[in-house]
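Self-study notes.
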Amino acid sequence: ILTGAGTVRADDPRLTARDVDAFNGPQPDCAILSSSGDLASDARLLEERRRVMLFSAESPTSVPEGVQSITVEGDVNARPRFEQVIESLRERGYTRILIEAGARVAPPAL
């Protein structure tokens, strides 16, 4: 699941499969795009055991435990370039991505 840090800050989503009776697999991995590289260590999406990747255009000063920081090329606004994030995910073996995002992440995905 790909989302933006703004969505994480505003909504504090879990980004999990909700129908536990019907879903018997691991929770989906998360990719978070952040201009600042900031991610709250108490974000609810960190409660699940799964891979969480934080994409930013600059190396963050601190990253919550268990979160993989990935630096990619930034755009003119110092935001992670969407196509660079997608390429990085592809190189890591991801072939399907669900985008759950707001005004900054959704437009370049379209």
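Second protein, same conventions, sequence then structure:
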Amino acid sequence: VVRVFHDALLARQAWRDAVMSRSNGRCVVTGARAEVCHHVVTQQVCRRKGIPVWDSANGIALTRRVHDRHHSRLEPIALDLLPPYVLEFVAEHGLETYLERTYPTTDADD
């Protein structure tokens, strides 16, 4: 049990490092220094669909405020702010409908 827990921590840390590196440690929404990493497709959905949870293509770097506001649904991250590599990951796994339900599009008239 300890070995499995240790391996999971290492996988999580490697995922976080890769996600942060991909965006140079900057929030993909605001450009400010990122503090957290976010699974675009939730870990639960990944597990249910047999998709690797720690694939860095399913992660984005965010400020804590952006992350918290997304999860509270006060200000969900807009679909058009997601990087191309995330969209490729989603398409590869056939999860476009999930993405459209979870990440709103911005209205061009705003």
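Instructor comment on the second fold: The chain has a mean pLDDT of 92.
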